[in-house]
Structure formats: C-alpha cells, structure tokens
Amino acid sequence: MPPSDDEMSASVTGTFIAALTFFTRIPRPPWSEFREGDDRHAAAMAPYVGILVGLGCASVALATASALPPLLAALLAMAFVTWLTGALHEDGLADFADGFGLMRSRERTLAIMRDPSTGVFAVLSLVFAVSIKVSALAALISVASAAQLCGYLITVHALSRLVAIAFMAVMDYARADDANARGARLSNRLGGRWMLLAAVGGLAPLAVLAVLNDWRFGLLAVAALVLFLLLKRWFHIRLQGYTGDCLGAAQQLCELLLLIGLVAVTGAA
Fold first, then answer.
1. What gap in Å lies between CA 49 and CA 16, rounded to an integer?
2. pLDDT 10s digit of each residue in the chain, 269 long?
3. Rounded-to-integer distance, Cα 55 and Cα 63, Å
4. CA gap 21, 29 in Å, rounded
5. CA dist 53 to 16, 47, 83, 194, Å?
6. Of all helices (H) and strands (E), which one includes residue 43?
7. Integer distance in angstroms from the first to the last C-alpha of the chain?
C-alpha cells in the first residue's frame, strides 16, 4: 500500500530535520521526535539546508558590509558559515587533500583520510580555499545589491550540495566497516524520487537567477556538471566509490568554482 499524504509529509519533515541537525549546529526542535529511518534519505535535503546556509551567509555579509570594508565583511560571513556548519565540509576537503595528494593504493588512501593528523596538503587546501572564497565574496559584495547577493549565495550553497550528494545516486560507499556510523547511515543510495527532490532544491535557485538576471548564470550548472564528472572519475579510480570526506571535498570544490564563476559573470573582478 503506498504511503498516505500525511505519512509522506511526516517522512519529508523528519528527513529534513535530520539533515538540518547533521549538516549544521542547529539543534533538533523540541517538538520533533527522531524516528528510525529519518537518517536514511537525509542527504537528499542537503540542498535545502544549503539554501538556509546561503541565506545566513548573505545576512551576515549584508549586515557587516554597511559598516566595514567588503573584505572584512566577507571574512566574517565565511567565519559564520564555518561555525554554523561545524566546518563539516572543510574537514572533508582537508582529509581528501591528504588522502588524494599523492598516488597511493586504495587502502592507504582510505587510511590516510581517516587519520586525524593534518598533513601539508590539508593545510594548503584550506588556506587556498578560504582565501579564494573570501576574495570572491568580497568582490561580489562590492557590486551586488542585497537581493542579488542573497540570490548568489543561496545558489552557491544549494547547488554545491546537490553536486556533493549526486555521487550517492551513482556510486557505492567505500567504507564497509563504517556501517554503524551515522555518517554511513546517511550515505544510503538515493533513489529517483529523493534525487528529484534534491535536484529541485539544488537547481531552482540557479534557474531563478538565470531567468531574472542573465542567461549566462546557467553556465554555472554546466561547470558544476563537468566538475561532478571529473571527480566521479577520480573517486572511481582511487577508491571504487566515495566516502564522506569525498562528498565534503566535492561541496567545497564546487562552492569555489561557483563563486569564481559568479565573479566572472557579474564582472565583479
């Protein structure tokens, strides 16, 4: 028997709250009770969490830009996002950089990515990533209106998270020994219905941006797709699958690509 509308609504709501509490520091609302299975498709809600994160980033940038230089406002906005998300994706990028920094075996790469120590590739990746993001955001703050900046950052955070979770629809999780970890439970294969829901959240902000502003914004989707295909090939060659660190790295790399693309399209350089 297919689920009723009320059951479907409860499933989506519970799944969204599970995603919100996993991908951000926002606590579970007191009226919401965790149910077994809420985690199963929570990753599909990552683009919607990204919309909230992007809105928060824009709010801090706009609130501080009225009294501070764009570079400082951008730095504060990025610091807020890092705090709000618990540096979850940045941690993935750092581990990914250490693991994939040199040609190693699959087993050695997985071991390095799990090692809590930080190597030179991790440090450099974070330095460059933060520098590029802050510089790009400062450039956008200098030329964008409040509404435009909100649209830009919502698009960046929603689409980059869609690219990250898209691997979950086409690849296998590479760590069989993590089956009981919450991160692994969130790494279930995403079926067509859930991926469609994720795609709507990830692509709708970009579609609105392109329709209301300039068709060239649509090229950002092409750039994101190319990045996805390149990373998919790389993940397959090295791991025959993906890990949570791979998804975090994919989100960060896509965020960087989209911010650079926005600077180019808007002429903010």
1. 8
2. 444 444 445 488 888 998 999 999 998 888 777 676 677 788 899 999 999 999 999 999 999 999 999 999 999 999 999 999 999 999 999 999 999 988 888 999 999 998 888 899 999 999 999 999 999 999 999 999 999 999 999 999 999 999 999 999 899 888 766 654 555 556 667 778 889 999 999 999 999 999 988 889 999 999 999 999 999 999 999 999 999 999 999 999 999 999 999 999 998 66
3. 12
4. 9
5. 14, 10, 11, 21
6. none
7. 56
**Tokens of residue 105, six digits:** 């075996």
Scanning the structure block, which residue is given the tokens 């990746």? Answer: 125
Q: How far apart are alpha carbons 93 and 172 in whole angstroms?
A: 19
**SS3 of the chain: helix, strand, coil, percent, to 5:** 75, 0, 25
